[in-house]
Batch of 2 targets.
Target 1
Amino acid sequence: MRDKVMNTNQVMRQVIYALVLGVAAQVYFFGFSVLMQIALAIVTALSAEAFVLRMRGMQVAPSLRDGSAILTAVLLAIAIPSIAPWWIIVLGVLFAIVFGKQLFGGLGNNPFNPAMLGYAFLLISYPLQMTQWPSEFQGVLSIFEASGVDALTGATNLDYAKTQLMLGESIGAITFESISQMWINFGFLLGGIYLLLRRIVFWHIPLSLVLGLVLMSGILYLIDPTSFSSPVFHLINGATMLAAFFIATDPVSASTTPLGRLIYGFAIGAIIIVIRVFGGYPDAVAFAVLLMNITVPLIDYYTQPKVFGK
Amino acid sequence: MSKLVFKGGLVLENPFPAKEIDLIRIPLPDRVILPMQQRIGEQAKPCVSVGDHVLTGQVIATIDDDRCAPVHASISGTVVAIDNQVMAHQSGLEALCVTIDSDGEDEWMDNSVACTENYDFCTPDTIYNKIRLSGIVGMGGAGFPTHTKVQFAEGCHTLIVNATECEPGIMCDDALMQAYPTKVIRGVEVLLHICGAKKAIIAIEDDKKESIKLLKKFCKNERITIEAIPTKYTSGAEKILVKSLLGIEIPSGGYASDVGVLCQNVGTLVAIFDAVVENRPLISRVVTVTGSAVREPKNLQVRLGASYDYVLSFADIEQGENDIRMAGMMMGVDLEGTNYSISKNTNCIFVNKPIEKVPAQECIRCGMCNTVCPVELLPQQLYWYSKSSNIEKALDYNLLDCIECGCCSHVCPSNIPLVDYYQFAKALNRQQTKEKELTDNARERFEFREFRLDRNKQERAEMMEAKKKALKEKMAKDKVQKEAIAAAQARVSAAKTAKESEDAR
């Protein structure tokens, strides 16, 4: 009799399906190592989840079946460089699941986005392995080989732009031959639109995140187009679309009021630009999301909708 | 946006539509069990004894508490027991009931204080008393005594007749309107006569086309309008209905009477008509029997106190272990077995084939619930704080404004019985408030005692001081007097001596 649109397990599954296009683009440009990373991440996540659940004396099967651990694993796996050594993703997922999720009480109780917590942990601990991206069309690179084959690796556009700027070049003179970033972002955008249409994700966070990002980068670009990248550059590079539709929208750690979601998304977009432009890291999604995660209880409290009769 | 559409809520279809919405009068039951405890307030006191012969419509229990209504015998026969019986409530608690065995005659009590057709000549007070003595309560499910509600709404400007049928699946109001459209209209006129409202609006959900047609046909009174409102669940909730029809938002914590509106269920109006014009107290009601195990849903006119088993025997129910649920699929309560009787607010019985219960998962704060909440709460936040018994925070998130409609639980992808948590939190809040009141009282008493002791002490001290002072003064005075006396004596004796010595000379 209870006609539900979807249950929690189906929601998680739909989000994973929506990632397919973006992942396909990654595989196309970076090879099958992307899939290996994902597979390794899922196995690690499920094992870690099962282990902690057993230690906590809870039922293992229902939690594994809800798909949330798999989702965290997939998100982290596609966020890290596909040629990172195997132990990078294993450590990251372990940290995400054990410290980011289970120690707070499991699904629904984690104040931080677990995948981003895992990412931040990796980025701070292993900056070298975390910033070496493969050049396009290098074919399959085994993640079990020792990495650091410099000829085959390069920095991302965001990184490249930053380095060139530091070297005194102006943005206009820096050429971006890679179209991989654009296609990957496009893939995640399509997946995100699917989630919007299925009403799995509300429009507030993706829209306001993009708005915050465009506004912040737009202001900087208007001030000085020679030293700041254009909003379009920021939209199609880095993890922008992945963040807008899949990471910032993690409902557990995001703001939950309609107005709060707008503020939350907007702030993440703006902070991404601030860190990308002025910070020391190539991309900024993880830190922007984690920063805003902290503010969620406050945002929620002060953005309660007007209650009937008040 | 049309003013008739409200935020949130759910468009739900009747899960088990009936081919015909007929009102079927079922034969007299052999036995009725009438509860003394009604929805709220004190328990009525039986005024009959075991072995007494009672007539249909005879008062068998009375009460002074204004929040309660008297109870009438719903059949004629013999009182066979006055004892505790299990109530149709989740708790399974027992309450005092009067059991009457039918004599099969259905012999009516002669209630001669009728107003009859010419109620216009009766003063509102007379009719008001008639309603009070007829034991009429809200027939929509809340069971609040009608006379009290009318009293609260004194000076109201609008009478709203709630014919929305509160939940999908329930059809008793629809059946009643189709069977007695004139009674409904006359009932509205009677209530207009006593409550002083200038106009009345009969609100019906637009899927009840037949009822709308019939009421429009029989309504000749220009003070009464019939308004078809969109079929959307919780449209029948009082606050939502008043907003939809009049655009008035009842303030948080307030009632319709606070904004000059009187809301009454359509079943209540038929009961008022029966009581005032036909001189029959409330002894029967319409019950919808529906559910997945019922082949054809039916609306049965049932004498109050008839057993569930008896009522269900008139519906075509599939054999097997079925789940029983009283009232609607959204706000109703699941019951164990069928060992209950029909009370004044039993509007529906669901008989469902057992379904496997889906275990609840963790809340992922997806926010589906706050898109459907008709009073615009944040159910996900309320859940978080209710679950952790953080009542203060839950109150901050407006726990007390929750109307427990169940929309949030219905859409929750994690199958969390959210409303159960809110009910728990509300109960906890009531308990804490009560405890706080008690401790506050105790503290006040203690502080007053301290103050009183202090005051007594001080007063005594002051008194002692005053006494001492008085004593001192008295002593001082005495001393002066004594001295004066002594001086006088001295003078006298001196004078004496002088005289004596003079005399001697």
Note: Chain B has a mean pLDDT of 89.
Target 2
Amino acid sequence: MRRWVSKIERALGKRRNLASELDEEIDAHLRFMIEENLERGMAPEEARAAARRQFGNMAVVRERTYESWQFPRFETFLQDLRYALRGMAKAPAFSLLVILTLAVGIGANTAIFSFVNAVLLRPLPYPYADRLEILWSGLGYSGRAPFSSFELFELRRRSTQFDQLAGTWVTNGALPGEGPAEQIKVADVTSNFLPLLCSRVVLGRFFGAEEDVENAPSTIILTHGVWARRFGSDPTIIGRSVRFGRHRSTVIGVLPADFRLIFPDDASVPPNVEVFESIPVGPWQPDGPSFLHVVGRLRNGATLAAALSEMDSAAAQINKLGGRASLGNFTVSVIPLQTDTVREVRPTLLCLFGGVGLVLLIGCANVANLLMARARRRLRETTIRAALGASRGRLARQFLTESLVLGVLGSLAALAVGYAAIHAILAARPPSFVNFDHVPLDARVLGFTFAVALGISALFGLAPVLSIRRIDLTRDLRESCRQSAGSRRPWTAALVSAEVALAFVLLTCTGLLMRTFINILHADPGFRAGNVFTFRVSVPGYAPLHLLQQKLAALPGVQSASAISHLPLDDAGNWYDYYYREGASAAEQTSVMADHRSTLPGYFTAVGATLLEGRDFTDSDDARHQHIAIIDDVLARQLWPGQSSIGQKINLSDSPPGFYQFQRDWAVVVGVVHHVQYHSLTAIVRPQIYVPYPLAPRPSMSFVLRTSGTDSSLAAEVRNTVSAVSKDIPITHVEPMQVLVDRAHSESRFASLLAILLSLIALVLATSGIYAVLSYSVAQRTTEIGIRMAIGAPRAQVLRMILADAFVWIVPGVLAGALLCLAVTPLLAHLLYGVQPTNLANYAAMLLGIIVVSALAAFLPARRAMKIDPLTALRYE
Amino acid sequence: MSTVEHLLDNEKLGLLQGTLEVLILQSLKLEANHAYGISQFLQQQSDHEFLVDNGSLYPALQRLLQRKWIAGQWKTSPNGRRARYYSLTPAGRKELLRATSKWQRFTVAMAKILAPEG
């Protein structure tokens, strides 16, 4: 202990005294020796020289004695650190280049890893999140259908593996309370749904047994947001009866501020639900509609496999019960909620993660090359230090310290880049990321960043160390004096080839994603969004809706006005069911599902959809007349392949008595319309069936106005018109239809943009790598080139020689890249549309691109070589 | 002639590093001495078998100082030169006794093994 204390004292304070004392001591030592030499009869000069010789290497004596005062390793480290910082300050351009390369390479990884961490690695913010499962009904061809209340009831009765099975359905509704009418998302939930996903209420209580009976008095639970926004965070809200749409409802609870719904995209359970109301579950309607999205919590200790086999047998039993499920093969799939939620985002994220990984590798190759080039430039210094007695370990430690310093500075800069990138990505994020707005730079992200930075800087550190491993004093001193090179550097060549290969892979993937984006831009959505203006209203019935349609159609600049229950590409809670033709077998009756749309006459004209056959609805198509429907060509082909569907009878569910009072009904098909892309621009998710509004009234409808364009005051006129019809009609989503289309493009735009950005970075890094290495090689070969030219080599030949040098690296790189592409591009298949991963045109274009860009990078130093003046070059030494 | 420095480069660094320190302690047993004097003493006493390298001597002196086995003091030598004289401390004397008996056992054992059989 005391030794340590004295060491620290010496290390910190007394160092200078000790050093001068040592010098004095050595001086005395020498004088003793000189005196003895003089006594032996040497001349003074001779005596002094001999004494110095006898004493030995004074620097080594000092160095070793200093070491005995120090914590040698730590002090050496500090010394190396100082040396490294000094070196960096002396070569600011070099240091900045390395740090920037690391910042971009690692920063991109930090950003994407933050998303991987937030989206894929962190559990959902729900109690027992690892035991939460989502259930899908296998009815319908997507295999991801919701359940009917009857089915949920029967599943619950048979389940032992689940603690809870809860259901929800999200619809549009009115904002509760007094004040201007506003349309919001309302979730109908079973009484156990909220306690399953939320550990507590802020005020009041969750739904309970009293809500679980048919025709219970209406009660609602508010989100924290709506409680604050509409009720001023009134703490006495519980138990109060408030206006809710056209009814009144009692507020029984308020949810915590951090509660949010996180569900798979296709469940139509968006995160912006603001009010919850309870729906009872019971065996009342065996052939009732499917609308409930079901989540369950496994009981403690239950396994997914056990739950699956239990649900299989339950489904088989329910099939025998009668009701709609018995018509087909009712099956149930059980998927962990988290897995299912990130189903859409996962491939995009993983591809991005791969992309930034490639950028980082290219950056690493560049930095390694830079450091190796510098190590070679410092060969003379290194060799001299080795000759003066520096051990290889000491030199290696110093190189390692230098690269660690660069690594640490690089990773700090990378954190800044990553932080900025996260915010940029969040701002540009597509709808599939909408659930993930909280992307923290947590310990795991910081750990990841520093681990990557330190790992790769240790690797870089090794590159120059490897080069000093082979120091041969005599040869290197000679060589470094002569400044000649000509020695092949296999590592450099391999690194440049690798950069070219990786950049080629990134370019090819980017090409595919860009092609996809262009294809999506040009995809026919089945409607024409240009000059179409839309908004959503909650209207109590047909009469005011009809009146509104007439008034809107009369507005100046409006060519046609109509309304539909769901706009294409909208986020409204979807409604779909089974449809079958007359004479369909039992199995056929549950094999075709279609989106159910309620419309006013004139919708197809207004939205720009193509009526292929038959007629549109008219104002006289109502419940009193023949029940009719219009179907799209996809449904027509499924139900009546090879024949006309006009005049055919179709079994559907409609609700002439009122909102959602569904009943099965036969209707005659009067028209066939070209399929409209409702859910995405690229995939046909389900066919559509259109029913006149009087047969299927909905509380919420979207108006579609086709205009002559350019009228910016339309929004105001629309609001005036609506409030002239009734002050109580909430109006939302007032926007041009193009906004919906743009939103649908955003996923692909996002992926392409990021890919383009990554490719550009990769290209810049790879070409600067080629440029730097070739410039260095030209500089090294100046003398050789000068001699060649002096003995008559034409300039063109010099140019060819240097370019050939570059292509020796580039060609293997491109070949390796092409092979890598064959392995990598199929991983993108999920993200592509209208283009094959192995698309030859794309390969060819990117091949040409990388060769041209690399050739340009090589041309600049080659031209410099060509311009070398032989006389100057020969004098260069 | 072997040098302590060469021996120090050997693998048995710990043991042999200790050796030089024991020799220094022994050289100070009778009287205080300066670094040059110590190296002269060791060379003469070993019949010039040991050539003490200053690169080993000075760090060894520092280690002994740090362990408080010797103490250093600036004095004027008989021929009027100022020099740093090292002397044994009581702890150093004790250490010398301990090390000496250890070395004796060690050399006796070595001699037994290496002695020509007869």
Note: The radius of gyration of chain A is 38 Å.
